[in-house]
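Posting this for the archive.
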Amino acid sequence: MSRNFSFTAKQKQKLTEIQRTLEELKNYLPLTLRQIFYQLVSKQIIENTTSEYTMLSNLLKWARIEGYITWKAIEDRVRVFHDLTGWPDSESFIRASLKYFLTGYTRDLMQSQEKRIEIWIEKDALSGIFKRVASQYTVPVVVCRGFSSVSFLHDFAERVEESERKTVMLYFGDFDPSGVEMFDSMKITLLDEFMILEDSVEFKRVALTKEDVFKYQLPHNPNALKKSDTRANKHVKNYGELAVELDALRPDILEAKIRDGIGNELDIDLFNNEIQKHLEEINKLNKFKKKTEDFAKRWMKKEFFQNQ
């Protein structure tokens, strides 16, 4: 016996607002549950409480099951499906290999820049937006997922030391006790413990900042300021009771801040020159791919008739 869910009038009203929000941000789908929650809070559709978050989660569950919202509109980046399925036969593998042969090439568009850029983000849940923007500049995205391990920071230190260019870390994280402390802690570890030279690396917090909170009127995270947390006391002393998650920022605004963060470090003439070289190389690769495909098709046809 299947379970049914009856939407109340209030829930239907919320569902309408959710659908409207998804339509407004359709160019940034899929969104996470937390992103949708903060957009509704900003619009004063729901209250900024844990109980409302839980109820929204349940509402979105049934809205998708009942077909009011598509499954592709919301993503879950915590759970991963590793597809290890094989091929039905060798011919299918050959055809697929030909289809994707020499595809996916991207020239390093940053290689002629004076600075080497890395984007660091606190949460994997937002990495889709970052990768979509950063890939257009061939800038690496690093998901640190909270306080970074010593091994993780050591890898960064090695990249800095091996590069002949100055490295710029563009950091995006929550503006709350942990989010602020993470960034400060990383800088201390890298500069004081790994002894990275200050003139070889530059740390820039792009978002969230205190200014962002007021400029975009971002909703407070009610669970961020735990009185038992020593970091919370320090945060309140420095910034007051301001605790906001990066997820609260509208995806389009976040995308603009990513672009601005990268753009502020670029020599645009050098960048455009690399793009032109990239296009020329793509043209050469396409010509070579066409010749290879023609040869492979003739070979496959010959093999087929020989085996009849």
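The chain has a mean pLDDT of 89. The chain has three domains: 9-73, 89-110+267-308, 115-266.
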